[in-house]
Automatic annotation (TrEMBL):
It comes from Kribbella pittospori. Residues 3-94 form the Thiamine-binding protein domain. Coiled coil: none annotated. Belongs to the UPF0045 family. It holds the Pfam family Thiamine_BP. This is Thiamine-binding protein. One of its GO terms (cellular component) is cytosol. The lineage of its organism: Bacteria, Bacillati, Actinomycetota, Actinomycetes, Propionibacteriales.
């Protein structure tokens, strides 16, 4: 499965920024060893249901350590029996664009 998620604390720093808290969540994802990528809006992670959801929970906990309230947006592509889809889905679209 692939999960795209975004975690943010309820409030930012003195400038309204949330990058420090978000960096803690991304650090957890990268330490998990699961295939992942981060873009301007979401972090994508691929793996089995239990391992992906455990990482999402750990990332939420990391942000919650510095904020009394946390927002989580999560979208999942659940397709049993498929792996490597984090890049394969994009490659299929790029191939279709080249045709």
């Amino acid at each position: 499965m692939i999960v795209a998620f975004s975690i943010s604390p309820s409030g930012g720093d003195e400038t309204g920024g949330v990058s420090q808290a978000v960096a803690e969540a991304v650090r957890v994802v990268r330490a998990s060893g699961l295939p992942n990528e981060t873009n301007a809006m979401f972090t994508n992670i691929e793996g089995e249901w239990d391992e992906v959801m455990a990482v999402v929970k750990q990332a939420v906990d990391a942000v919650a350590a510095s904020s009394p309230r946390v927002s989580l947006v999560l979208k999942a592509d659940i397709r049993p029996g498929y792996t490597g889809q984090l890049t394969a889905k994009v490659e299929r679209v790029e191939h279709a664009l080249a045709d």
